Amino acid sequence: MGRVPVGDAGGVGLGSDGWVERDDLLDLIHGGDGGLPLSGGRADKRADRLLAGRIREVHSASGGAYGSPRVTAELRGEGFRVNEKRVARV
């Protein structure tokens, strides 16, 4: 539980203040509907934009030192099910 920073959520409706509930973000990224009516490609893009915000936060918090392997490890430690390829792509 709790809120996590997602930076600019890319106009996806969540995190308009730069923060989103951790469980909502995990549901969206892991394929749960999270109470959202989107599915398929639009939902994937929305999840990627939210994940991108969290990736930027982790990268910035490291002073720009963390690359995709370390960012992936950090996100996994927070409960995200992501792999390095997705972190690098997003």
Q: What is the count of distinct domains?
A: 1
Q: Report the portion of residues in β strands.
A: 5-15%
**Largest sheet entry:** 2 strands, antiparallel
**What is the approximate shape?**
globular
Going across the biggest sheet, name each strand in turn.
Answer: 1-2
How far is the first residue's CA from the last residue's CA?
Answer: 24 Å
Which residue ranges are poorly predicted, with pLDDT under 50 across at least 5 consecutive positions?
33-38
- List the secondary-structure elements in sequence, H or E: EEHHHH
Global structural class: mainly alpha
Rg over CA atoms: 12 Å
Total count of strands: 2
Note the total helix count: 4
**Helical proportion?**
40-55%
Please tell me the overall pLDDT. 76
List keywords for this structure.
single chain, 2 strands, 90 residues, 7% strand, globular, 50% helix
Describe this protein's structure.
By secondary structure, this protein is mainly alpha-helical. The chain has one domain (3-89). Helix content is 50%, strand content 7%. It has 4 helices and 2 strands. It has a two-stranded antiparallel ribbon with strand order 1-2. Helix 2 (41-61) packs across helix 3. It is globular and about 30 Å long. 26% of the residues are buried.
Strand and helix map with partners:
Layout: E1 3-5, E2 19-21, H1 22-29, H2 41-61, H3 68-77, H4 84-89
Antiparallel strand pairs: 1-2
Helix pairs in contact: 2-3
What is shown here, in short?
This protein is mainly alpha-helical and 90 residues long. It is 50% helix and 7% strand. The chain has one domain (3-89).
